[in-house]
Amino acid sequence: MAETTYQGLIEDLENYLLYQRDEGVQRLEVDRAVLEELAREPEPETPEVVVVEAAPIPDDFDSLEAIAAHVSTCTNCELCQTRNATVPGEGNGDSPAIMFIGEGPGADEDAQGRPFVGKAGQLLDKMIEAMGYAREEIYIANVVKCRPPGNRKPVREEMDLCLPYLRQQIGLIRPKIIVGLGGTALEGLLGRPVAISRMRGVWQEYAGIKLMPTFHPSYLLRDPTKKKDAWADLKLVLAELGRVPPPRT
């Protein structure tokens, strides 16, 4: 029983910290007594860090396939050291109505080399279907193409080194609308920290393309009460495209 209770506390703490991150909080005050208690636990060994020198990314890719091939051999940041597979993106690359952009691959995506295939991806599929589209009709990508260890938030340097791929993907794909999933995706696209709870539902612009910020599906799994807000954002996207949600069956 004690072990289960302890595990539950850890999960609650993790969910709380993830919620604060999604809200744009970058610093939390921690009681000194808590820090002293945590200090009693043995610290994990720090793995040896290999310094990676960034190489220039070509700015003239002529296809999504060429980008994916370059991504697969990219060693421009430390994420290359722990990845199993790169995740460049997938879907309709020929002027789709919508391009969804998330934060980065998780464990399932890192294993399969495909974006949004875990629990958050399953929810995203339902959101896409509710809008009247099939997954194959839109395009899905992330700000970073390799999984950050432990699904942590990618740091600014990692995003900056990977963003040239995404920028060129957007230029080749030419989506009518971009939907930014979560604060990190918006931070990567707009180049500044954002609070997604205040920005969601308010049109932005990226490279001359309308950009709709909304919650990341993983956040909606942690707080299902926000699903109605996300759906309201997606209905704004449909309205901009001159469409209405199909009737539910």
UniProtKB/TrEMBL annotation:
Q: What class of enzyme is it?
A: hydrolase
Q: InterPro entries in the record, alphabetically?
A: UDG_Type-4/5, Ura-DNA_glyco_family4, Uracil-DNA_glycosylase-like, Uracil-DNA_glycosylase-like_sf
One GO BP: DNA repair
Cross-referenced SUPFAM superfamilies, in alphabetical order?
A: Uracil-DNA glycosylase-like
Q: What is its EC number?
A: 3.2.2.27
Alphabetized PANTHER family for the sequence: TYPE-4 URACIL-DNA GLYCOSYLASE (PTHR33693:SF1), TYPE-5 URACIL-DNA GLYCOSYLASE (PTHR33693)
Give the protein family. Belongs to the uracil-DNA glycosylase (UDG) superfamily. Type 4 (UDGa) family.
Give the protein's recorded name. Answer: Type-4 uracil-DNA glycosylase
Name its species.
Answer: Pontiella desulfatans
